[in-house]
Design brief:
This protein is mainly alpha-helical. Helices cover 57% and strands 0% of the residues.
C-alpha cells in the first residue's frame, strides 16, 4: 500500500509543480512570430523568380522503366461483365 502511495506521489508531483510554476512570456512571443505578413514583407520580382526557379519539380527524370509510347498510350477498355451484359439484353 505504501508503495502505491509513493508511486502515485512521484507521478503527481511533477505534474503539480509544472502546473503551478510561473508562466513565461512565451505565448506573447509566439503570437508575434505567427502574425500575418504585412505589405512590407512582399516579395520582389527577383525573389519570386528565384522561388519559381527552385519550385519546379523534376518530372520523372530518373524514371525510365516505362517507354514514353507505352506510358502515353490510351488505356484499354475494361472487360465487360457477362452477367450485367446478359441482364441488359433481357431488359431490352
Amino acid at each position: 500500500m505504501k508503495l502505491k502511495l509513493v508511486l502515485a506521489a512521484l507521478i503527481i508531483a511533477p505534474l503539480a509543480l509544472t502546473a503551478c510554476s510561473k508562466q513565461e512570456e512565451a505565448p506573447k512571443a509566439q503570437a508575434e512570430a505567427s502574425a500575418p505578413a504585412t505589405a512590407g514583407d512582399a516579395t520582389t520580382a527577383e525573389q519570386q523568380a528565384a522561388i519559381d526557379a527552385l519550385d519546379k519539380p523534376v518530372l520523372d527524370e530518373k524514371n525510365q522503366d516505362v517507354p514514353a509510347e507505352v506510358a502515353d498510350a490510351p488505356a484499354d477498355e475494361a472487360t465487360a461483365d457477362t452477367e450485367t451484359a446478359a441482364a441488359e439484353q433481357k431488359a431490352h
